[in-house]
Structure formats: C-alpha cells, structure tokens
Design brief:
Elements: H1 9-48, E1 50-54, E2 69-73, E3 87-91, H2 107-118, E4 129-136, E5 141-144, E6 151-153, E7 156-157, E8 177-180, E9 185-189, E10 211-212, E11 216-225, E12 231-232
Antiparallel strand pairs: 1-2, 2-11, 3-4, 3-11, 4-9, 5-6, 5-8, 6-7, 9-10, 11-12
C-alpha cells in the first residue's frame, strides 16, 4: 500500500525552488528598500546640512584651485551666523556672472548627474554660484588701502596671510575703496586679489557689490577632492580678532 501523506521527490524539489525564488525576491526587495532609504537620507542631508560644489575659477587661489571640490555647510547662515573670514558659496546677486550656455548631456549622463546631484555628490549648478571670503559684515566700515597696502575693517588694519599677490605687489587691492556694508549684506573678496571679480568690481550691479546674506548657500568646510588636497578651510579668526563690531 502507498502512503499518500508523504511528499514525493518532485514535490520537495518544487517547494525548494519556490523557497529559493522567494528568498531572491526578498533579497532584491531589501536591497531596493536600503537604496531608497539611503537616497532619501542623502537627499535630506544635501538639502538641509551639507552639499558638494566644484571650483570653476581661480579667484580663490591659492586657497582653492580650479576643479577642487568642496563640502559646504548649509547650516550657515540659516542657523549659524556668518563670520568675517568665512569662505562662503552664494548665488549670484545679479550681474556678477555672465550668462551660461545650457549644458548638453545625453539622457544616461543626465540621469546619473541628477541622481548624484540629489545626494549632494555632484554640483551641476556650480557655475551659477560664486565663492569668496567674507571681509565685511553688516555695518562694517571697510577701506583700502593704507600706506602699508593693508585693508582695514572698522579702522583696524588686517594682516591677511591667505591673500595671493602678484610678484612685486604689496597692496592687497589693486584699487582703493571706502564702503560701509548695509544691513542684511556682506562685503566679499577673493583671495587671489588681482584676479577676482568680487565686491570691489561689481559696484555697478543692482546690489552695488554687496551680497545679500539670504543669497549665501553655506560656508565651505573642506576640500574633498582631489585627495592630495584634502584639508579643512581656515576662516583665520586671528586676522579679525581685534576688529570691533559695527561702528554705527
């Protein structure tokens, strides 16, 4: 007599096959969930905390070189106030940048770039932003240059070790200026002083060379690429240590 309650060999094989397929499906599902969660976390970090930019010009040499990649802290100035000496990324206040031609990419590269940008690992809008060092805060009286070629903030001369000057030049600015920073704005300058279209050279724009604090995306924290240049970006607090608060 045959015992029909015992599974046949073919039934056992079918059950094992189903179990394996279910295991593969669960594994793929878990991978997709992990990927989506990681993408969401990266997106939130990029949106609210940090993001990447690359350097398109030499205006901050030798602090930053062309094609350096930097990590930007977006909590400043949203939660942390901007300080003198900070290197900040900001949106064009209007008229600082020449019109940019649209970047043409094939569909695959554009999709990859979109994903990388969403998680903060790519910066397709770097050419729409600028990066400079904050010199003057709202209310500051900024002048240049004294007989020693120094810039002064609120009547305190600055000794600026980060400035790059052409051979033979001792003045930290090619042109003299005397300004007071309006409320809600910043006076910014490039470290490569003789090759930087900064606040000095945008006085004919609608903002008269001042950068609204609302335009600041964040403070540059670190050079992340290339690895040979990995370093934290100094805001040189000792340079501005003796500068009093606004004079007015």
């Amino acid at each position: 007599m045959t015992d029909n309650s015992l599974p046949t060999r073919s039934n056992r094989q079918g059950t094992e096959t189903k179990r394996k397929k279910r295991g593969v499906a669960l594994f793929i599902r878990d991978l997709l969930v992990i990927f989506v969660v990681a993408l969401l976390i990266s997106f939130l970090i990029k949106t609210f905390l940090v993001r990447s930019f690359y350097i398109p010009s030499g205006s901050m040499e030798t602090t930053l070189l062309i094609n350096d990649r930097i990590i930007v802290n977006q909590l400043e100035p949203k939660l942390i106030p901007v300080e003198r000496g900070d290197v900040v990324v900001f949106r064009d206040p209007g008229g600082w940048l020449l019109p940019q031609a649209p970047l043409e990419q094939n569909a695959v590269i554009a999709a990859v770039d979109w994903v990388m940008a969403a998680v903060g690992l790519s910066a397709p809008d770097s050419n729409d932003h600028l990066i400079k060092r904050v010199i003057g805060l709202p209310g500051d009286h900024v002048t240049c240059c004294n007989p020693l070629g120094q810039m002064s903030v609120n009547d305190v001369p600055l000794s600026e070790p980060y400035v790059s000057l052409p051979t033979g030049e001792t003045s930290v600015s090619q042109d003299d200026f005397d300004i007071v920073v309006p409320d809600g704005s910043l006076w910014v300058m490039g470290d490569n002083r003789y090759n930087s279209k900064d606040s000095r050279y945008n006085t004919e724009t609608p903002g008269k060379g001042f950068v609204p604090i609302d335009n600041v995306v964040g403070r540059a924290l670190v050079i992340s690429w290339p690895t040979a240049r990995w370093s934290w970006l100094d805001d040189y607090p000792e340079v501005f240590q003796g500068v009093p608060t606004e004079t007015r």
